[in-house]
Amino acid sequence: MLLEVKDITVHYFKVPAVRNISMSVQEGDIVTLIGSNGAGKTTTLRAISGLKHPSKGEIRFGGKRIDRLAPHRINALGLAMVPEGRRVFPQMTVLENLLMGAFLRKDKNEIQKDLENVVFKHFPRLKERTKQMAGTLSGGEQQMLAMGRALMSAPKLLLLDEPSLGLSPIMCGEIAAIIRDIHREGETVILVEQNARLALALAQHAYVIETGNIVLSGPARKLRENDDVKKAYLGG
Ligand SMILES: Nc1ncnc2c1ncn2[C@@H]1O[C@H](COP(=O)(O)OP(=O)(O)OP(=O)(O)O)[C@@H](O)[C@H]1O
Ligand SMILES: [Mg+2]
Fold it and tell me: Could you state, in order of their start, the residue ranges of all structural domains in the chain?
């Protein structure tokens, strides 16, 4: 397994936000974590990326314990997160934002290659806008930029927190197609979504989280057929 989360609990002050969560991610898969508002999806991703240390349990990435490491150390090991709400640097250009994603890398040639062969290939809109201030991009373009920036660290595992949130149906479709393409080229992805329909269509494996607990997991195609999932997350 590329990533193993074992029995983690994460507290904010004294309140547990997620409890005894376990999940694993096999290399080459898209794994989705679906759940309603406040269920603990972002908290789980923050624990994996090192932004919030769990109070119990362990997290292994490529076999190595990462649950006590700082976020930049985890990033250097090959894990990149696109946070909820994108968080691009609004006063910097598109190109400057993208290069920020590569700041831990040394090889300038490789960085230039990834800019062309990974980012601009999947996001041709960004190539047309390299000099534009990131804050003036549309919501969908900012999502693309945030994803492109994460890909510039050449991650083995990409964490996406609600990439479809607030986007038009057309833009959601575009983002979904890009996630599918990136995956087809070998990227392993954890996709957090409230849009369960979209997430279950993209993923191979899925986890359902409710009030801080994983209540269901399995192959995404099985969860799509599950009556409880249909009722709660797919609109009947
Ligand atoms: N910084 C924080 N301080 C205190 N409590 C927090 C903090 N962040 C999240 N929580 C609480 O932890 C729980 C899980 O929140 P989390 O953001 O992980 O949910 P989520 O599934 O990502 O929800 P959403 O779909 O709204 O993004 C919620 O009860 C939330 O109020
Ligand atoms: Mg969230």
Answer: 26-52+66-78+156-236, 89-154
